[in-house]
């Protein structure tokens, strides 16, 4: 799944984005501007967000044909209230004429988005979409100035894409915190030019489009195998220090590429802040217990001679928002009362000799 990352984060993907913008032929880039000028839906709370989500999605897909792995990073102007440095400098494909602050002096502030009466608190989709467009969306266009202040040609500024990536990000955040409410006609078809037509229903969930918004991703070092109190083996990951984490609303612990076992089924239980957890450690009502996953044997069809199943690997994820926010406050201590880093501990149940993974990480969302 593609990850659109914040321009404020380290390893935000802007280098790949710069390469892709530099690689797209100028006449083709101008055709994308024309698509926006001729087809963009504005001042219509039913379809403004959906059309721009589709527009951004197809543009990103085109960039990925030029530079594999590229995504459009999002510019959170409340946390980075300036033209990002990556978009400045002679010879930089992301540089473009701008007049920041000339039309309106300030960008939207954080309280107008996340405050008790802010954008994300609005209960109605139509009210949310209308306020997002006429408020924060339009103000950012005017603050940047020059081409960005002219809706017809605003995509000529590469910053347009990162601005709309964040507009889409805010819609995704709103969707994740509200019961479903959206455009009145999900079957309405959106024309994105050059034969690209997609229904509103198809763009209502970004997971269906195979991307997500990530404030930052923290790769965890290879887990160390350590004996538990009962002599069995367990896997331990040191949780990131608070200086690495920053602000977030949701955190996930992810294991990528866990192979289905060929011979021995097993279970893995996940604890946070419990270094000595064992098979007998209580899980019911335990704040240290994160969850579990069971791996079943990847069977073999002896009659037809092939494995059963469409994939022999799985990705596993657990919500650890509570643990990252609160579990590290009382720092885990050893017998000598020396401070230790809080850990995620994986406890095997059964014969887990085939357990392995390709990557472990903490993924943070705003």
Structural features, described:
This protein has 366 residues and is an alpha+beta fold. The chain has two domains: 2-214, di-copper center containing domain from catechol oxidase; 216-365, Jelly Rolls. 27% of the residues lie in helices and 21% in strands. It has eight helices and 15 strands. It has helices at 14-23, 26-39, 48-66, 110-114, 125-144, 159-176, 242-245, 321-327, and strands at residues 2-5, 189-191, 197-199, 211-214, 216-219, 224-227, 233-238, 250-259, 266-272, 289-295, 300-301, 306-307, 313-319, 343-350, 359-365. The strands form five sheets. It has a five-stranded antiparallel β-sheet with strand order 6-7-14-9-10, with no helix packed on it. It has a four-stranded antiparallel β-sheet with strand order 5-15-8-13, with helices on one face. A hairpin with a 4-residue loop joins strand 11 and strand 12. The protein is elongated.
Give me a quick take on this structure:
By secondary structure, the protein is α+β, with helices and mostly antiparallel strands. It has helices spanning 14-23, 26-39, 48-66, 110-114, 125-144, 159-176, 242-245, 321-327, and strands at 2-5, 189-191, 197-199, 211-214, 216-219, 224-227, 233-238, 250-259, 266-272, 289-295, 300-301, 306-307, 313-319, 343-350, 359-365. Helices cover 27% and strands 21% of the residues.
